[in-house]
């Protein structure tokens, strides 16, 4: 008596590659988005006004000339 073959039906060889590439792209984008949200939450962007003020002060210390640039070019006259 014969048996039923459990082989996969024939598919083009690139079919599996496309699925793997799609999963890699999606997971990379998801990781970047999740990392961005985590980093901004950790730094205080989504927190209280005091945490946001602390973040801006840290940025002013890290980037020289940022505060004077902001005062010179970004204020209403």
TrEMBL record:
GO terms for cellular component: MICOS complex. The keyword Mitochondrion applies. It is found in: Mitochondrion inner membrane. It is a single-pass membrane protein. It comes from the Eukaryota. Pfam families: QIL1. Keywords: Membrane, Mitochondrion, Mitochondrion inner membrane. Component of the mitochondrial contact site and cristae organizing system (MICOS) complex. Component of the MICOS complex, a large protein complex of the mitochondrial inner membrane that plays crucial roles in the maintenance of crista junctions, inner membrane architecture, and formation of contact sites to the outer membrane. Belongs to the MICOS complex subunit Mic13 family. This is MICOS complex subunit MIC13. It comes from Armadillidium nasatum.
């Amino acid at each position: 008596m014969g048996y039923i073959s459990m082989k996969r039906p024939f598919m083009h060889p690139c079919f599996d590659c496309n699925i793997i590439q799609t999963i890699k792209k999606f997971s990379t984008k998801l990781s970047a988005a999740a990392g961005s949200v985590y980093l901004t939450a950790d730094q205080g962007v989504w927190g209280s006004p005091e945490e946001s003020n602390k973040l801006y002060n840290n940025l002013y210390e890290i980037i020289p000339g940022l505060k004077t640039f902001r005062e010179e070019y970004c204020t209403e006259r």
